[in-house]
TrEMBL record:
It is found in: Membrane. Residues 152-228, 231-320 form the Ig-like domain. GO terms for cellular component: plasma membrane. The chain crosses the membrane at residues 329-350. Keywords: Cell adhesion, Disulfide bond, Immunoglobulin domain, Membrane, Repeat, Signal, Transmembrane, Transmembrane helix. The lineage of its organism: Eukaryota, Metazoa, Spiralia, Lophotrochozoa, Annelida. Residues 357-384 are annotated as: Disordered. It comes from Dimorphilus gyrociliatus. Residues 1-21 form the signal peptide. This is DgyrCDS2178. GO terms for biological process: homophilic cell adhesion via plasma membrane adhesion molecules. It is a single-pass membrane protein. SUPFAM superfamilies: Immunoglobulin.
Length: 384
């Protein structure tokens, strides 16, 4: 019975295998999760949260349940309490055992180790470095119109220049390039990065300003400040608008500010707040930023004002609307027509009178006698 023999042989072989492999756990089986991305040390901004993973590849034939990963903080086996800021989880992914160590709101640096329980000489180690980082800026809130410049310093502590890959600045999520059309200036110093916006615009520069440190070890650390401002209002179109009687009027008001304005309204040239209750031709859209008036008339001409307000005040912008007669556009055309008509008439009359004169002259000079003769003949014929 060779098949039974073979089966027994294999069972024995795998049993030996399990015993052997459990004993033969090697250091290269133990790795930091996403090792290619993160190097040592692992930088975290003070107050931020982070998660770091440790992965154990269990040898062929063994079960992941044969192992347990444990963590050491400053060389002491770590025990997560219930309501602490730390959490440890463990999961199996095929024949890997993965343990993740999380901390909420880090306040100081420490050494972190991961090892399979019972293997005191088999561990991997990482330095967790808590760095302080903070943005400060020169303006007292809120940012007002025509401020000379906005000056930010992003100071950091606990990381050396050697470990900094790049420091980036963002305004409302947009990465700042010094060669942008606007006047931006970024300068890097030993313990801070300075960012200056010359002649800041509320419409572009108020809001969230972020300083981001990218480390050579693969970490990204950032701090954010919200620059509050007065509201700002401007028109998308030119300073004035020309319309013809009966046209619809559409005005778009570009509103900005930090916090974003919550109240937007319009005043007519007669200083009346515009809405559909006051005038059924009026409609408002985009939280009142777009004003529409159907069937515009002479009385609607004048200066329109758009107002916006937030917690820091109110701001307005005006635009002049001119309304022309419906036939106004026709008058020049009619004028040209009349001109052409008169010109043609003059030419025609002149031509006619010239022809008449020419004919008269010919008659006088040459055909005078003939005509008289023929007339005479006709007369004679009629007589006869
Ligand atoms: C490792 O990378 C994977 C995929 O990018 C991601 O889902 C996982 O959260 C990362 N783990 C850690 C601890 O960063
Ligand atoms: C930023 O630092 C520079 C140099 O120390 C200083 O002149 C400037 O006033 C600082 N700006 C702010 C907003 O703190
Ligand atoms: C600024 O960030 C806060 C959250 O930090 C967010 O609620 C807000 O919408 C952001 N503002 C802008 C203008 O992006
Ligand atoms: C829009 O305008 C109307 C009428 O002026 C006003 O009652 C309402 O509060 C405005 N809404 C907003 C979002 O400003
Ligand atoms: C509009 O704003 C200007 C200042 O920009 C202010 O002088 C004026 O009084 C405001 N108009 C109204 C109607 O509030």
């Amino acid at each position: 019975m060779p098949s039974v023999n073979f089966a027994i042989f294999f069972i024995v072989l795998s049993a030996i295998d399990v015993v052997l492999s459990k004993a033969e756990l090697k250091l290269e089986d133990l790795q930091w999760e996403n090792k290619s991305k993160y190097k040592n040390p692992f930088y975290v901004k003070k107050g931020d949260s982070f998660t770091i993973g440790c992965s154990l590849r269990t040898p062929f034939g063994s079960s992941v349940t044969d192992y347990l990963l444990e963590w050491l903080v400053n060389n002491r086996v770590f025990q997560a309490d219930y309501d602490s800021d730390f959490e440890v989880t463990q999961k199996k992914v095929s024949n890997n055992l993965i343990s993740e160590f999380s901390q909420r709101g880090i306040s100081e640096s420490y050494n972190l180790k991961c090892r399979p329980r019972g293997y005191s000489n088999l561990e991997i180690s990482k330095q967790i470095d808590a760095i302080s980082m903070k943005i400060e800026y020169n303006v007292d809130d809120p940012l007002r119109h025509n401020e000379k410049n906005l000056d930010f310093n992003c100071t950091f502590n606990g990381i050396t220049d050697d470990d900094i890959e790049e420091i980036l600045w963002y305004v409302n999520g947009k990465k700042i390039e010094e060669k942008d059309g606007r006047i931006y200036k970024i300068s890097k110093h030993e313990t801070y990065s300075q960012f200056i916006i010359k002649h800041p615009k509320i419409s572009e520069d108020a809001g969230n300003v972020t300083c981001q440190i990218q480390t050579k070890t693969g970490n990204t650390l950032s701090d954010i400040v919200t620059v509050s401002s007065e509201p700002h209002v401007e028109f998308e179109e030119e300073r004035s608008k020309n319309l013809v009687q009966g046209d619809p009027l559409t005005l778009k008001c570009k509103v900005s500010g930090s916090p974003a304005p919550t109240r937007i309204y319009w005043k007519s040239p007669k200083e009346q707040i515009l809405n559909s209750d006051v005038d059924s031709r009026v409609s408002l859209k985009d939280s009142n930023a777009t004003l529409k008036i159907k069937d515009i008339d002479f009385e609607d001409k004048g200066t329109y004002t758009c107002f916006a307000s937030n917690s820091h005040g109110e701001y307005n912008a005006t635009i002049t609307v001119r309304v022309k007669d419906k036939l106004a556009a026709l008058w020049p055309f009619l004028g040209i027509c009349a001109e052409v008509f008169i010109l043609c008439s003059i030419i025609l009359i002149y031509e006619r009178s010239r022809k008449k004169k020419d004919t008269e002259n010919t008659v006088d000079d040459e055909a005078g006698d003939k005509l008289t003769n023929s007339n005479d003949n006709q007369v004679r014929q009629r007589r006869s």
